[in-house]
Design goal:
DivIVA_fam, 2 strands, 3% strand, globular, cytoplasm, coiled coil, mainly alpha, two-stranded antiparallel sheet
Length: 188
């Protein structure tokens, strides 16, 4: 994803009868994202996850919330790869590919902070990779991802940043939700 792609991104309007996100606020935040891709500002996954847009003014539909949220999920993944100096595996329109999961590396937790047990997270990442590579009845569901609980690492053992892992799991869950919705639609 390039700064120009971020700037050119367009969102549909919220469905009739619904108020989406305030368009001007989303556009301003999108420019901040473009600046982050240029290295002119720092934007963390936590800031992306925690950012709340105002609802469009009464009488205005604003931007479709799902489209904006999906875009922010994609940005989380892209910024993480850019931060680590890695290029994403080309995956078409897929929000997340098995190759992306295999190449992803989490940071250790900040000094004096707890972190997830790295071995537990790595085992779950293998399951995510398998699920994304082979869609079918035996893979993980979005519910599985949203409800997974990792133990905290003991002193002296490998640990991952809780914030980074949780941000990534949000992206995985949204990816699986989109696939589940597509399968449900195809079944009907």
């Amino acid at each position: 994803m390039t700064p120009d792609e971020v700037r050119r991104m367009r969102f549909g309007r919220a469905p009739f009868g619904h108020r989406g996100y305030d368009a001007a606020e989303v556009d301003a935040f999108r420019e901040r994202i473009a600046q982050a891709f240029l290295g002119r500002t720092v934007l963390t996954a936590a800031e992306l996850r925690g950012h709340e847009f105002a609802t469009a003014a009464l009488g205005h539909r604003g931007y479709d919330r799902d489209e904006v949220d999906e875009f922010l999920d994609r940005v989380c993944v892209e910024l993480e790869f850019a931060r680590r100096g890695l290029r994403r595996h080309p995956g078409g329109d897929a929000l997340l590919t098995p190759e992306d999961v295999q190449r992803l590396r989490f940071s250790p937790p900040p000094r004096d902070h707890a972190g997830y047990d790295a071995d537990e997270v790595d085992v779950f990442l293998d399951r995510i990779t398998t699920t994304l590579a082979h869609t079918g009845p035996n893979g993980l569901t979005s519910h599985d991802v949203r409800t997974v609980n990792f133990g905290l690492a003991h002193a002296g053992t490998a640990a991952y940043s809780i914030e980074e892992v949780d941000s990534f799991l949000d992206v995985v869950a949204r990816t699986l939700e989109a696939e589940e919705a597509a399968r449900e639609t195809a079944a009907h």
